[in-house]
Amino acid sequence: MVTLQKTVSLDTDYLESLGFIWHTDSDNSSYIADELVTISESEAEGYYEAANELYDMYVHAAQYVIDNNLFHEIGIPFNLVEIIKASWENDIHWHLYGRFDLAGGCDGKPIKLLEFNADTPTSLFETAIIQWAILKKNGMDESRQFNALHEALIDNFKRLVTLDENVENFEERYEGWKFLFSSIKGNSEEENTVRLLQYIADQAGYQTEFAYIDEVEFSDEGISYQGNEYELWFKLIPWEDIALQASDLAMLLTNIIKNQKAIIFNPAYALLFQSKGMLKILWDLYPNHPLLLESSFEPLKGRKQVRKPVFGREGGNVAIIDENGMITEEASGEYQNHKMLYQAYTNLPEDNQGQSYQSGVFYAYEACALGFRKGGKILNNMSKFVGHIIQ
Q1: Is residue 285 helix, strand or coil?
Q2: Cα(316)–Cα(391) distance, rounded to whole angstroms?
Q3: Which structural domain range is residue 31 located in?
């Protein structure tokens, strides 16, 4: 069972003073839980080591997919294959950050990979800032968290130039590249997440600008906004949405990468990591690995399992299936047309109210921060964010 520590709730005025405005769910309940998950130093280290090992495994699996032309098998749209290959083969296309969703690790149970949100991971603001603010507001030691996300992102922004672990010579090599940050209009959570990343890039030393996606101009010659060309572009728009809903843009971005007119973050190959079809590839390459759950594109016979679309968010179209093949719980959604993956079921840590806790470990060159979400058996957009403290 997960160990919890009650905290004083952060009032909405304080949250909004930090720039956090999606603090209240549609049922008027607070999105930020008034509790912390308590973990030990060794448990924090366990999360750190697990995420680092998993990332290396994903790199191996991605190369395997490319070498064996398995794009279709893991659900990659055909019109992104070329740009994925181009971004993978050139080191300048740096993976900025992602988030591993994990079970176990804080309840005496082993850590198990559920999936990797590698393209457009959310809960960045909550993890980097809000859970730190919870400790500060409650008079707790702010250093007692596995939470170096802000600093890790500053360094990883600099690595876009140095392409090296060492970021000390960033200023010497930086050539004044302009960095454009974009989100869709009308989504405050996504916009503020992007603006936070823009702020961090400012701190790293870039010249930055923000524009909504429909204000940005694309051509074979590059990416521009208000007459200015941008060599670097960050978009919080999923690659699969670009492929399926904006095929002309997918073609233009492919040409931009091929012509070396701009670098896009997260890179197109992040979609390989993002696809839950990679869970099956990982199981093939690392059968019975202690961090993995058995995964297949066919139902697992005689096993309790989870069925999930290879691309989907916030629990959409996820189902829990019992040992007899009967669905015991299912979430609605808009991802039912995607290929489905079947993953062996594992229990999430629970509190004494039966609420489930899923850990999220951010990765930016290395594992750098931990946060939790709690909710029902299938976590959805009504799940709560829960911070943590190391005791």
Answers
A1: helix
A2: 35
A3: 4-274+350-390
Give residue-wise pLDDT tens across range 255-283. Answer: 999 999 999 999 999 999 999 999 999 99
CA distance 40 to 257: 45
Sign of CA dihedral 293, 299, 304, 305: positive
Asked whether residue 282 is domain-assigned, the answer is no
What number is the average pLDDT over the span 345-367?
96
User: 132, 66, 19, 27: which is closest to 272 by C-alpha?
Assistant: 66
Are 314 and 386 within one domain? no
In a domain, 285, yes or no: no
State how far the alpha carbon of 287 is from the alpha carbons of 70, 280, 292, 303, 310, in Å.
18, 10, 8, 17, 20
Count of domains in the chain?
A: 2
Residue position matching structure tokens 């060159």: 365
**pTM for the full model?**
0.96
The mean pLDDT of the chain is: 95
Q: Residue range 129-134: average pLDDT?
A: 95
Q: How many CB atoms lie within 10 A of CB 360?
A: 23
Query: 340 and 354, same structural domain?
Result: no
Peptide bond into 28 cis (omega under 30): no
